[in-house]
Amino acid sequence: MTTPILYRAWVAASMVLLPFFARSEVRKLRQAGVSRLRAREKLGHATQPRATDVPLIWFHGASVGESLSVLALIHRIGVALPQAQFVITSGTATSATLLAGRLPPRTLHQFAPLDAPGPVRRFLRHWKPDAAVFVESELWPQMLRRTHARGAKLALVNARLSERSMARWRKRPELARFLFDLFSLILTQNDKMAQGMRDMHAPAERVEPGINLKSMAGPLPVDLETLAMARTALGQRPVWIASSTHAGEEETVLAAHKALLKSHPDLCLILAPRHPERGTEVRDKIAAAGLSFTRRTRGDMPGEQVFLADTMGELGIWYALGDIVFLGGSLKPIGGHNPFEVAQSGACVLSGAHVAAFAETYSALEAAGAAFLIADGTDLAARVDHLLTDEFDRTKACTAAQAFVSGQTDRLDTIATRLITALELTP
User: Fold this and answer.
1) Domain 224-406 falls in which CATH fold?
2) Whole-angstrom Cα distance, residue 311 to residue 402?
3) What pTM, to 2 d.p., does this model score?
């Protein structure tokens, strides 16, 4: 296949711009607390050894959501391929922090190399992947072409591109074929995206609808000592959780909590904003609402009307404290967040109506009676009040959530088997 002019232009541009991007990316990681040694992984310098005489499978996702979404899949493949080693790459310090405590056996994390000849060559020369799995829309041209040129089989999983991205690919059919033809298998999040990939000139016979892997991420970690301390602090008080909230949503949640306190005066709200760095902003909103609070970044435990859980990596602890979780990113047109993590904790899910990013998962959870979509703050307060008051309905919803989680195991095993086959990996 003739190399498209756009690809050659990208390679040339990356060589010229590499020094600027390298400084910028390393600086961002250093400012986030990443060591200088690890920050140089962006330039392809490995900081971990590759196991010899075993197959290595490389998984690449951009940031937190994409990286976490494949952990359960790596675990399943690892069970089927007990000799294999895995390396997972991502681009952000946050993703590295969250992955550190959740990596499956025989799995290492590295920061992804910049898409330029030097960094990609160094990365591939060290890791020598036998297969590479790219997640969602991580379609870096040189990463794909150079990995394939070394003889590794490629797959794209959880494929999801925006309408704007798909329109751009359709306008560049030569480049699209040049890159999409590298994949032995393309698994999309749903049927609509499968057709979208075919319309973007991906080889139709290799495109298959799959499932949203984010809806099947592994369970959130729980520090048992911290959980015990939180339970002691709460005593017998009822609890509800509002997590992954965004700007413009906390006010609605806090207004609902104030309404609930009239009938449940000892109720505690655990409020965990999506971005913990917004902690001070959210603290001011709690104070403005006239509610008392404790704050996790001060080392506090739940103890007042609101507990501001503004730390990273502790969400699993807070989910374990209650049966009712409202997921943010859904009262505003953001797309929603992963309800599967909540269901895994055994809690029922409340959400606003803007859940396009997890539409299929919410639909299935709603049908099972494990999730409820709410219209506004008044509706949220009414639903939480009902679940707090009606133990039978609350238990029924939580049981449905647990049953839903159990029913997903076979589907994930099927995807793992399809990947092993397509990538020609020997069990």
Assistant:
1) Rossmann fold (3.40.50)
2) 26
3) 0.80
What is the rounded CA–CA span in Å between residue 127 and residue 106? 14
CA 388, 394, 397, 400 torsion-angle sign:
positive
CA distance 80 to 153: 18
pLDDT digits (tens, 9 = 90+) for 221-234: 899 999 999 999 99
Active site residues: 66
The sign one gets for the Cα dihedral 45, 49, 53, 56 is negative
State the residue for tokens 């990013």. Answer: 357
Higher pLDDT, 65 or 82: 82
Locate 150 and state its tokens. 């070394």
Residues 352 and 109: their CA atoms lie apart, in Å, by 34
Identity at 208, one-letter amino acid code: E
Tokens of 417: 């088997």
111-156 pLDDT, tens digit each: 999 999 999 999 999 999 999 999 988 889 999 999 999 999 999 9
Judged by DSSP in three states, 155 sits in strand
Q: Domain 5-218 is of which CATH architecture?
A: 3-Layer(aba) Sandwich (3.40)
